[in-house]
Amino acid sequence: MEALMNWLEAQLADNSIFTLQTLGYYGEGLVTTVQLVFLSLIIGLVLAVPLAIGRGSRHAWLRLPIFFYCYVFRGTPLLVQLYLIYYGVVFVEGIQDTWLWLILEKPFVPALIAFTLNTAAYTTEIFRGAIKSTPRGEIEAARAYGMSWGLMMRRIVLPSAFRRALPAYGNEVIFMLHASAIASVVTIMDLTGAARFVYARFYAPFDAFLFVAAIYLCLTFAIIYFFRHLEKRLLAHLKPASG
Amino acid sequence: MIDLHGYGPRLFEGALITIELAVLSLILAILLGLATASAKMSRHWWLHRLGTLYTTIIRGVPDLVLMMLLFFGGQIGINMFTDWLYYQFDVDIFINVNEFVAGVVTIGLIFGAYMGETFRGAFLAVDSGQIEAGRAYGMSHWLVFRRIRFPQMMRHALPGLSNNWMVLLKTTALVSVIGLSDMVRVASEASKATREPFTFMIIVAAIYLLIASVSEWGFARLQKRYDIGYGEAN
Amino acid sequence: MKFQKILSIGVLGTAMIAGGANAEVRDIRIGVDVPYEPMEYRTPDGELTGFDIELGNALCAEIGIQCEWVVQGWDGIIPGLQARKYDAIMSSMTINEQRREQVLFSDPYITPPSAWFAPMDAEIGTPSDETLEGLTIGVQRGTLQDNYVTDMYGDVAEVNRYATADDMVLDMDSGRLDAVFLDFPIGKSTLLESEAGEYKVVGEKITEPVEYFGEGFGIAFRQRDQELAAAFNEALATLKENGTYDEIYAEYFGD
């Protein structure tokens, strides 16, 4: 390990920008970005499934609030949502004295909340579209088997909706990765935060931002590759028979 | 009535800047999108490659990073050029990359890539029999484009176009980070000075929703126009 | 046709020579980053004011030129100068070696120290590795305070970097920051004299080492605009002599 560090140091010796210190910032930034995006996507996904089912409900009291939530979060910039949550929580009376403040004090959790609510709204719409396009025959078949509503959802509707939603969801994942760049405006040292630090310190915009752009590009490719692979496996039965 | 602490007029100006920025970048994006779609459908392999490279890079890098690269880096790049002019030829021109121009160019560049995909799909959806029919009538390439391909392509492109516009509108908020006084910037300055983030941010959110709703209505009307001659069923 | 071309080149040439002749006393544009109270800030209706603005206007009047202020975020302020977006920067910019490689500085026009600020009830001793350990410290991104804190305490404390001083004050108010490191006059006006909360200065005011804290605030010009810098230096000396400088100083920092 030490030998590796020495080697790296020697390689970096003749450049003043990419030192071990700044590479360390980029490294930590990468970890933060991945954590933030991954966590918000997972929680958003878990929230989106019941929301998507409720969004198609016959009951207006259930359907309308979800519609309104999706409309607002999809119709306004994530940056505005982030500002509202990050600076807004501060003005909740007496919040500094509760345990909640312990987690809301750091910028990570407010950003995570904003990102999660945002992606959950988009994912809800994606799933709703997929659920709506379930072939009627599948539902009729399930009914004919005497399946209850819950069983039908679990066994028939959701699994096939997930598959149909996969390509659109892949795009949402990439969007979320790119959207996460604004975390740096609330002082989070994510990848973009690291690049802004390096830029401001060395007045070297090309080095700072091209380097980080390359990292994002690699991450994007990894996501695309992952979803292609997943689609190939899960959607194999939908492919036209080769011949 | 809501107390805006005297920030009302600046907020209004900010909203105008947001709209101007969005409309100008949309125009740039449509032009770039048409060019990209043509490049990708071109017979020349290098044009095709260029189009693919452009869309891949743009769609792989966050908007904010591209914006900063263009705004901070673009200025230095242009400096190098004008400094060279100055030292070589004693020509002292100054090219101003202000936040507004950087914003329009970046957003236009980003959405040009998305528009390219939309237009390409839409052009391919136009029935080739109609194009051949146009040719058979002795129409020139340009006339076929204007009378047959473009109007029919628009019908297929409109849903994608409207979707891109909605995303573009929200992307304009990022210019506040590089210092342009759009409505998000004004609202964030105002909420820090007055310590009332809810008041200003919720107003801004409402304006975004209003613009989105109005444009949704506008696009629905356009779609109706381009759908003339097609059944309501699809 | 050919004659016309020659003529137009001739006209262009003359215009350029004429432009070159009075380059030193032309009207200029000055870049500034707001808000940074009391050095430069805006009234709610958008008008610029502050120590830099008033001193800058007085300097321009003394030289006998018109000056226009251009607002520019701190991140892009030096590239903006080099892009000829404006001809000078007067925005609480500390003179130091790193920046000297990029720009030409006037003589320092004010030399404020930096200082640590913390909430009144905070129990931080004299700032050091031990007392700052585990705390969250706010600085403005890309400032000398950022460089100093990052290098000295980046390993023991968490450093949050902000785009503007306003953002930082808001997070200090809400309790997200344990301490901030700022130019003393800015901290005095935005924290000590603000209505928002009760704050105090922790430890001594800091001006050393010079490699971080430089020699004071200077007006920055492009390297080649030496006549312009000389004109500002001369005007600054005059204002200091005739009392105008002291008047403006008293208005913003006077006790």
TrEMBL record, chain A:
Q: Which GO terms describe its cellular component?
A: ATP-binding cassette (ABC) transporter complex
Family named by the database record = Belongs to the binding-protein-dependent transport system permease family. HisMQ subfamily.
CDD domains from the UniProt entry: TM_PBP2
Q: Which UniProt keywords apply?
A: Amino-acid transport, Cell inner membrane, Cell membrane, Membrane, Transmembrane, Transmembrane helix, Transport
A GO BP entry is: amino acid transport
InterPro entries assigned: AA_ABC_transptr_permease_3TM, ArtM/GltK/GlnP/TcyL/YhdX-like, MetI-like, MetI-like_sf
Name of protein: Arginine ABC transporter permease protein ArtM
Annotated compartments: Cell inner membrane; Cell membrane
**MF annotations from Gene Ontology:** transmembrane transporter activity
Enumerate the spans annotated as ABC transmembrane type-1 domain.
30-227
Q: Which residues cross the membrane?
A: 33-54, 66-88, 108-127, 173-196, 208-227
Q: Where would one find coiled-coil regions in this protein?
A: none
Automatic annotation (TrEMBL), chain B:
Chief subcellular location: membrane
Keywords, in A-Z order: Amino-acid transport, Cell inner membrane, Cell membrane, Membrane, Transmembrane, Transmembrane helix, Transport
PROSITE patterns the record matches: ABC_TM1
The record's GO molecular-function terms, alphabetically, read:
transmembrane transporter activity
Looking at the record, the residues that make up the ABC transmembrane type-1 domain are 15-219
Task: Report TM segments.
Answer: 15-39, 60-81, 93-114, 156-178, 198-219
For the keyword Coiled coil, the answer is no
Q: What membrane topology term does the record carry?
A: Multi-pass membrane protein
Q: Which domain of life is it from?
A: Bacteria
What is the recorded name of this protein? Arginine/ornithine ABC transporter, permease protein AotQ
Please name the taxonomic classification of the source: Bacteria, Pseudomonadati, Pseudomonadota, Gammaproteobacteria, Oceanospirillales
Give the gene symbol: aotQ
TrEMBL record, chain C:
Q: Which SMART domains match?
A: PBPb, PBPe
Cell compartments where the protein resides: Cell envelope
Instruction: Extract the Pfam families matched here.
Output: SBP_bac_3
- Enumerate the spans annotated as Solute-binding protein family 3/N-terminal domain: 27-255
> What is the protein name stated in its UniProt record?
Lysine-arginine-ornithine-binding periplasmic protein ArgT
Q: Which family does it belong to?
A: Belongs to the bacterial solute-binding protein 3 family.
UniProt cross-references to PROSITE patterns, sorted A to Z: SBP_BACTERIAL_3
Q: Which Gene3D superfamilies match?
A: Periplasmic binding protein-like II (3.40.190.10)
- Keyword set, alphabetical order: Signal
Its primary localisation, in coarse terms, equals: other
Q: Name one GO cellular component term.
A: membrane
Tell me a Gene Ontology molecular-function term this record carries.
ligand-gated monoatomic ion channel activity
InterPro entries, alphabetized: Iontro_rcpt_C (IPR001320), SBP_3_CS (IPR018313), Solute-binding_3/MltF_N (IPR001638)
Q: Which organism is it from?
A: Halomonas beimenensis
Domain Ionotropic glutamate receptor C-terminal: residue ranges: 27-255
